[in-house]
């Protein structure tokens, strides 16, 4: 009798244990399958979006690089050619940022190039503001100008307008950024003082982040470049967080409508290695030193030649490349005034 009672108890425990295991495993399996299905959906959606955004440029002398195995660079080009500007092909760049990626230590260096930098524009063979390069010759001339300025290869480009900037941040439910001072700025529709931000760490939506990225009322182009770098880093941080997984579809839709790039989808997957580096990812921001100047009554930002040489050396070391051209610093230096 005791033996029968013992067997019944053992049988009940086994049934209970199976029931517990079932209630634990089934939700886990459901979650896992959901992630797999969502991952497959995102993969297919990303591939479709990137195919629509893919716009290669036939550049003479462009080096062949494998982003999975080699160091590479990407020029991020921000332009105000949104709906209000009717996507004018001759628009000037509002932001230029070169990112270099080092495969060995999974590090990124971000270099902001002030839009008013006084530089040589190849092909046109003139000296003017670097943001004019896009107006004169689109993405191709912009790439050539940056390559000549920094003396490193620009392997890829990503061109986005203000709509993409706003929509991506909104799709991520905002980003956390420190606002250095209180100010008012126009919005994306050029309505004067439509956005007011107060000093301090806070979560910004797309329009607010754009206002922070654009303003230079209380400082200069260099400080604006630093803010743009911080915003980019905040976007990267928010994008790779687990909380943002459910927003990836909206992010891709925002990007696809307002971006062009010569990165193929299979090449873009190389960024996963950097994203999964997590806290081990080392992102350093660099800025081009210089001073304000006026030439023929027009404001320019005159780059400091010695500081520029130092930045070139840092980028070459990070990319592990030799000099991009045979020109000496004096050949590409701005004419003195």
From TrEMBL:
GO BP annotations, alphabetical order: cell wall organization
**Organism of this sequence:** Mesobacillus subterraneus
* Gene3D superfamilies, sorted: LCP protein
Please list every transmembrane segment annotated in the UniProt record, as residue ranges: 20-43
> Keyword Transmembrane helix on this protein?
yes
Similarity comment: family membership:
Belongs to the LytR/CpsA/Psr (LCP) family.
Keywords annotated in UniProt: Membrane, Signal-anchor, Transmembrane, Transmembrane helix
Q: What is this protein called?
A: LytR family transcriptional regulator
């Amino acid at each position: 009798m005791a033996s029968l009672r013992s067997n019944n108890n053992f049988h009940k425990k086994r049934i209970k244990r199976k029931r517990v295991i079932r209630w634990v495993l089934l939700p886990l399996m459901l979650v896992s399958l959901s992630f797999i299905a969502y991952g497959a959906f995102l993969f297919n959606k990303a591939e479709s979006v990137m195919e629509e955004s893919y716009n290669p440029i036939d550049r003479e002398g462009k080096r062949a690089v494998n982003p999975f195995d080699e160091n590479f660079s990407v020029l991020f080009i921000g332009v105000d050619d949104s709906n209000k500007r009717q996507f004018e092909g001759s628009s000037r760049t509002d932001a230029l940022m070169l990112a270099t990626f080092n495969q060995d230590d999974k590090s990124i260096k971000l270099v902001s190039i002030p839009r008013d930098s006084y530089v040589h524009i190849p092909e046109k063979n003139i000296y003017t503001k670097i943001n004019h390069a896009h107006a004169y010759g689109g993405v191709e001339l912009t790439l050539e100008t940056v390559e000549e300025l920094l003396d490193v290869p620009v392997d890829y480009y990503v061109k986005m307008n203000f709509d993409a900037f706003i929509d991506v941040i909104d799709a991520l439910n905002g980003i956390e950024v420190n606002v250095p001072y209180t100010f008012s700025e126009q919005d994306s529709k050029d309505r004067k003082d439509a956005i007011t931000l107060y000093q301090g760490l806070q979560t910004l939506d797309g329009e607010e982040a754009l206002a922070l990225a654009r303003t230079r009322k209380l400082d200069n182009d260099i400080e604006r470049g630093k803010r743009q770098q911080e915003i980019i880093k905040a976007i990267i941080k928010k994008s790779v967080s687990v909380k943002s997984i459910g927003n990836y579809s909206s992010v891709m839709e925002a990007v696809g409508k307002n971006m062009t790039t010569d990165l193929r989808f299979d090449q873009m997957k190389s960024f996963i290695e950097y994203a999964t580096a997590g806290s081990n990812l080392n992102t350093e921001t660099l800025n081009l030193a210089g001073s304000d100047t006026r030439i023929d009554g027009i404001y320019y930002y005159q780059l400091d030649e010695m500081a520029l040489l130092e930045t070139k050396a840092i980028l070459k070391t990070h990319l592990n490349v030799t000099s991009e051209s045979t020109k000496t610093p004096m050949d590409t230096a701005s004419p003195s005034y």
